[in-house]
């Protein structure tokens, strides 16, 4: 369902329990509800809900338990994700960005396994690129509500002006890819690894150095503490020289 300016609601699909391919709900400016999709428990490829300006809730997806798409598949949330409370696993990636009114991630507590990346904010190839917008989840002060135990890909948190902690990742024991935390001016590192956290393995933490350069309180001591329990991957302890902050 893409670019249907006159679409206000979705006809009842009560008998539909599984979608073998993709479910995309994008650019439907008048769509106010996802009612009609309550019976969908599984999506076989990817799910994306994005740029539906009148949509304030995804309550129609409250029965969704799994998304088993490719490693590059993405869930992009609209303004309220409260009704994704049944979602337990995503084989692909989860992206949460550009939601002007989003203040809470309550409803994602059942999501314990993500096969791909988790991206909060801007998703960019260049981890040290400047932010494109200051309106990227500006009201999201905490990631409480998420509880991932494993992340198969990378963890990226970028350009979140209101975010003050990432305690939601305190129980995360495995991150298979990179950790990229950048350009979050109020963010502390409580909850991410260190001696009190559960993180025991990650692929690459080198991008953490950007916190010492652009909008973050990271110090060499903080960085060392986070890496105490890391057992795999490329995680050099950078000396924070001025040249690295350009």
TrEMBL record:
Coiled coil, from the record: none
Keywords: Cell wall, Glycoprotein, Secreted, Signal
Keyword ATP-binding: no
Identification of the protein by name: Uncharacterized protein
PANTHER family: RECEPTOR PROTEIN-TYROSINE KINASE, SPORULATION-SPECIFIC PROTEIN-RELATED
Secreted as UniProt keyword: yes
Annotated Gene Ontology cellular component terms: cell envelope
Main location: secreted
Protein location: Secreted, Cell wall
């Amino acid at each position: 369902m893409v670019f249907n300016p006159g679409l206000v609601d979705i006809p009842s699909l009560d008998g539909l329990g599984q979608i073998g391919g993709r479910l995309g709900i994008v650019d439907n400016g008048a769509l106010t509800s996802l009612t009609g999709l309550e019976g969908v428990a599984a999506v076989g490829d990817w799910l994306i809900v994005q740029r539906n300006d009148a949509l304030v809730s995804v309550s129609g997806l409250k029965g969704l338990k799994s998304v088993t798409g490719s490693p590059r598949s993405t869930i992009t949330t609209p303004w309220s994700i409260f009704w994704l409370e049944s979602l337990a696993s995503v084989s692909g990636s989860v992206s949460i960005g550009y939601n002007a009114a989003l203040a809470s991630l309550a409803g994602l507590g059942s999501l314990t396994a993500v096969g791909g990346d988790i991206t909060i904010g801007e998703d960019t190839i260049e981890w040290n690129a400047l932010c494109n917008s200051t309106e990227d989840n500006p009201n999201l002060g905490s990631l409480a509500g998420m509880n991932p135990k494993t992340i198969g890909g990378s963890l990226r948190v970028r350009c979140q002006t209101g975010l003050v902690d990432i305690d939601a990742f305190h129980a995360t024991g495995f991150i298979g890819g990179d950790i990229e935390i950048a350009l979050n001016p109020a963010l502390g590192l409580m909850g991410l690894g260190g001696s009190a956290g559960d993180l025991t393995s990650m692929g690459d933490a080198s991008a953490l150095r950007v916190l010492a350069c652009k909008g973050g309180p990271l110090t060499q001591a903080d960085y060392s503490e986070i890496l105490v329990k890391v057992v795999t991957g490329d995680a050099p302890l950078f000396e924070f020289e001025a040249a690295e902050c350009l």
